[in-house]
Amino acid sequence: MAGESRHSLCLQVMKTIRSRDNALVKQLVALAHSSRERKKAGLTVLDGIHLVRAYVDAVGEPIAVMISESAQHRLEVQELLSRCRNASQNLFADTLMTAASTLDSPAFMMAIAPTPIAETIPDNVPVVLALEDVQDPGNVGSMLRSAAAAGIRHVALSKTCAFAWAPKVLRAGQGAHFSLNIGEGIDLFNFIRRFQGQSLALVAQTENTKPLFAIDLSTPTIFLIGNEGTGLSEKVANAATHRVTIPMPGKSESLNAAAAGAICLFELVRQRHFVNQHNPMV
Question: Which residues contact 260 (CB under 8 A, 6 or more apart)?
């Protein structure tokens, strides 16, 4: 009974909104569908209960939470609302949630939260994943997810990468964003030059490349992953300590950027945690 009373209290303070002319509805739709609006406002849309829960677990309460009317009595919704008592809680007509959500099957829970402000990435950290001109949101999000899974904290994105806090990137990241320090608009050439460690440019195999698996990854390392079609720029690739390639004895000529990034990160995990156990630096 105590649990039911607590959940009922959450519902009692919720605002019911059914008009498209409502200011919060307009704000949510604009933020969900416009990268420019998100950057201008410094706000992020969490589209779906999984992302809302991941944010609450890692960061805390968002600014506002929106629930569709048809989902208001779901236990998982009520439990999460009980952890967002200081957030503005709003009950949306299902049609409004459909208009705002970017999912194929519209979310029944969304939230608005401040976009985390990145810390400056020190030039002596154990490892950095650096992406140059990776434009597919799914690839960026997948690599952020791999970085979080590998226990890596710092990610550097060039200014031509997909916006890290776009809904599709957030969806592909599956909550990984909230455990990472994601620097955007980074000048990778200058970052490489001042980094106190090695930098590895992932490129197609040529006479000047080294196999990834032959590189000692026990020292501070930057992994450089380039555009899906053209790869890394020559300027950045030439500035790297090594040009490396992933051996592919099969018939495929290339790997998806996200798959290549995951292989690099987990080769580092293999070396630091299972080969060089005396130096498990991640």
Answer: 202, 225, 246
Residues 102 and 148 in one domain: no
User: Do residues 89 and 133 share a domain?
Assistant: no
CATH of the domain at 206: 3.40.1280.10
One domain, residues 107 and 178: no
90 and 156 inside one domain: no
Number of domains in the chain: 2
Return d(Cα 91, Cα 101) in angstroms, integer.
14
Q: Are 149 and 176 in contact (CB under 8 A)?
A: yes
Residue whose structure tokens are 């809302």: 52
Asked if 182 and 243 sit in the same domain, the reply is yes
Distance CA 227, CA 211 (A): 20
Q: CA dist 134 to 141, 151, 176, 224, 252, Å? A: 10, 21, 18, 11, 21
Banded model confidence at residue 7, pLDDT cuts 50, 70, 90: very low
CA angle 51, 57, 60 (to 5 degrees): 95
Query: Is residue 120 situated within a structural domain?
Result: no
- Tell me the per-residue pLDDT of 123-161, one tens digit each, with 9 for 90 and over: 999 999 999 999 999 999 999 999 999 999 999 999 999
pTM for this entry: 0.89
pLDDT digit string, tens, across residues 17-58: 999 999 999 999 999 999 899 999 999 999 999 999 999 999
Last residue of a domain, one of 88, 114, 140: 114
Cα–Cα distance, 78 to 70 (Å, whole number): 13
